[in-house]
Amino acid sequence: MDKFLAVIKKLLTLFVKLFTGVCYLVLLFFFVQVFCYTSFRIPSESMEPVLVNGDYILVNKMIKGARLFDVFAAVEGKDVDIYRIPGFGDFKRNDVLVFNFPYPENRWDSISMDVMRYYVKRCIALPGDTLEIRGGRYKVRGCGERLGNQDERYIEKLEHAEQYGIAVDAFPYDEQQGWTVCEFGPLAIPEKGRKVVMNRTNFFLYRQLIDWEQKKKLSLKDGRILLGDSAITQYRFEKDYYFVAGDNMANSQDSRYWGMLPEEYIVGKVVRIWYSEDKYSGKIRWERILKKVR
Fold it and tell me: pTM surpassing 0.85?
């Protein structure tokens, strides 16, 4: 009887140790997912050839810091406050970023976060940059580096865009400015603390951002800019924003069309492809596994 009880005790002790070990592993996995790294699957061709449909990517949250917010309220579609823990650096031009799409589906007139809808695009311009697109090529004033994937085949197609099904009209869809995906800007990307004069042009460029920051409607009436019921002549931004675009420029719904991305909606930077599978054959793409993303 004593031997039987001893065996039972050993088995119970082993079970408790295994259970405790599993709990520690689950907690560690949860900690890493929330604060350090997470994973996403690429479902489209908008970032080809760097990322292709069927790639599984590893996203570093620690550069700018992981986000903390009420997930349950966000899933219900409620407006939530988003906080970041301290990070180790800043996002840079040409970083590939994962973010929550900042606009409601089929509507680009107001900002709201869809916690279940993620996009991956390349950072073209940072807060404080002044961006232009000339001849289909991205240019940031004072920056000599190559920006994005300057696809010459795509740029050639822009001369006959309608024949290739490429949408030419671009943000902010104002007839007086007449911006297109070929000729765009100059657009000053807002940074926290930056002031802008509130005229007609800046009304169309920044109304979604100001609406979102102030939780009030910005309107243009009789030549005056109204925030709620109050006339304003200038505005100081409270948040940082980014301009992002897909490498597959002919097949990417990005900032050229819907505008600027709030920093709060950015999950992190893509660092590697950890797994890849052909969506048609199901075969593993071994040559892509652990490939660094640049």
Answer: yes
